[in-house]
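Input sequence (343 aa), recorded before submission:
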Amino acid sequence: MIAGFAAIFLLLLIFVVPPVLNVDHYPLRVISYLRETTGKQVEIGRLALTWFPVTINIDHLDVKNLPIFPAGYVIQVAKIDVELAQQADLFLLSPSAPRARPFSDVEPQAGPLPPCGREPIPAYPGVGGEAIVKSWSKSDLGRDWKPPMCTGWAEVGFSTLVTIAARFPYTSEAEGLLHHIGAISQLTGMRYWSTNHKQWRTLIVNAYALNDSKLDQRREDFTSNEMKEGKVLYFEQFDNLSGKAIYRMHIVEASASRLVFDVENVSTMRYYFIPIFHPGELQSMYFLDRESDNVWRYYSIVRTGKNANRLIAGNESSSVNRAVALYRSLVGIPTTQEPPAAP
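Predicted structure, token format:
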């Protein structure tokens, strides 16, 4: 069965994905194709393609059980390498390639890892514990760090990179969270800790939903019924640093037990007249998973692109406090609760 999945991977790369070396640029297409072809919930951590010999390297291949069976996985493989035989039209497992190994035998992946079919890095805290907030450095991950495939982020590297892993109490249904996420106007007045001024200050001066990606197309907040899986929505936000900017919000998953959405700027963000973030240079992704009737899990990953203006991009403490303010707002914690995450 593993070889069969590997063969589908290689056929996909040859006939569906354009002939480039970095297949990480096409994560959503690869995963979508595999799910449609196999009829199973497939997750993959990383794909790499080498040409001499033609080999596909697959890290962390997970295939979930069908819904009619107990929750779990029918396949979990830490790493496999598949080579196209040079003198036969066959896909073969390379004799020198590591075979399927239990995850306990594999070194942890360097860098952040969202909850895409496996436990995240950093791990969630215990129930009632403080959120795990981490700012990642380029010295640890390298200038050309590759984002986890399930983020769908094509560009490598970052200027700032912040993750938050938490558990939070919530007794309502997922629809209530969707309603809160779609209430863009309620972001207005959100406060955060300013490391420059050493005080709580307003982060978001104004925010409102848009009919599309154009300016001045204001509308009422998004309803939970609008926020369906695959939906793309737009909103405008006026923050205390970069003024007005338009953002795109993509609902990646939306079910009774899991919500995943990503946000990125689609307009240039400026400090006065100086561009600080070009389109797509401020990205965030959020994963909300129901753990029990009254506990949900939260994981966010936020980055600024490696080419962002240095006037703002290198301020790690500010990035941490902004990410924490959004986390607190979403899970119902006062955004000015002491102590600040990065004083």
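Checked by second reader. The chain has six helices and 17 strands.
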